[in-house]
Amino acid sequence: MSVQLWTLIIVGITFSIYIGIAIWARAASTSEFYVAGGGVPPILNGMATAADWMSAASFLSMAGLISFMGYQGAQYLLGWTGGYVLLALLLAPYLRKFGKFTVPDFIGERYYSSTARQVAAICALFVSFTYVVGQMKGVGVAFSRFLEVSFEWGIIIGVGIVFFYAVLGGMKGITYTQVAQYCVLIFAYLVPAIFISLIMVGNPIPQLGLGGNLADGTPLLVALDKLTVDLGFSEYTTSHKGKMDLFFVTAALMLGTAGLPHVIVRFFTVPKVSDARKSAGWALIFIAILYTTAPAIAAFARTNLINTVTNSSYTELPSWFSKWENTGLLAWNDKDGDGKIKYLAGEAFQGKPAFAVDGKRGTFGERVVTNPNPNTENELYVDNDIIVLANPEIAKLPNWVIALVVAGALAAALSTAAGLLLVISSSISHDILKKQLMPNISEKNELLAARIAIGVAVVLAGYAGTLNLGFVAQVVAFAFGLAAASFFPAIIMGIFSKRMNMQGAIAGMITGIVFTAAYIIYFKFMGGTKDQYILGISPEGIGTLGMILNFIVAAVVSAITPAPPVRIQELVENIRIPRGAGEAVGH
User: Fold this and answer.
1) Neighbours of 265 (CB within 10 A)
2) Are residues 31 and 118 in the same domain?
């Protein structure tokens, strides 16, 4: 059977399972909609948390970034993994003991202020929407290639599917759907990795295969270093960016993790505080399986890609090349007219490759572009986000394996998108509507408002995803930076500082998110150049500096304003006391 038919069968089966689970576990109350009724077993919650956590950025884009950035790309792996450990050990149990549905709920109660709640709700919307845009791009990448539709139509299809089961099931439906999605995505990630590791280095364990030898006895990474250097790229195993930016990006990803609302809310879905700790441990095990495999997939894919396309005649390339061309995510411009692909260092095009006005392709299938870059001999454009999906095709694996990877990518993107959309809906319906504007709203109308909010958010996110704002992991990194700059200081000081008051928390959150958002917008959308970076810090890492400013402003403002009420100081003290940790606090 063809790849497309296999894709329709496997994706159809998995989606039928997801939708069936959503119908079976549909939410009937606000408690079930927001936190699944607080009755999810720790191991299942750990699996759902892993699926929620491992988005399209983890499944698709992380290995792609490592593949093209080499050692430097490890900042994404280290930042996200370290951040989860920080969240699981330092924050999750305390937040669960506090017993609120949402992060804005915690901040509103801890800082005894409706204004603090409103600021936190706006920050949650900002962070979650930025994050979900990255997921919609991942959905579009997968659907566009394997359903052989345009990138934009791929996103539209994904929007419809997310809308259905997120609106219907709420957190209860999403939780059990995510358990199934984790099983699909991890199986889909490991199967091709095992196949390719066996083919390339003769070792069925990809993590060990990364350090293995090729058929000629050359270590894989030594061979890859030589390939990349010969083509003018930086050595694969060496860092080639400033250490300052490397540190700031890693820290932003790590600290942003600890402030992500859609991950934090997962720890409210278990019966007891002790179960929050257990589910965090399970989730870390489930996450580690994929994260330790990603570097191997990256190295395998990079090696195979270079060996397959470099100096190859276009007319002799396998069919996967032209099919990825049709999505607009892979492009070739035959600059010297020899019909062969020159894959060298340097940008092949200025910006995203595009069709000419008439939408036709030139000789040998090249993309006719309006503004090719004349300063480089590189003729090939490869979107980082396609590398995991294209990897099985490049390695000539069976069609069912290729289709399985598509199902896994969609499971990763859709599971996280659903969790993020729930945060958006709860911020609007619970934190803004019920807590601020309409305190007497009925439970039925609150649920309706939450579902309407999801519908509007998913449509807007789908549209933003079509704008191609960056690679999936880049867009997600912006969300992490915003979370680090806004939520992390407010949460950490809310748990461990009795002196931190509402004035300090509000001032800090506003300072952090405004500074970080302005920096990202200026350099990504207003023409800022790299030589203008503060201390050489890229937009992906600026959230760390925003967080530092948040801490400073919050501490200074808190020091010169009145201390919190005694009841709040006693509340903070009670949150940190392990005694009674087996008891859940009422919602």
Assistant:
1) 25
2) yes
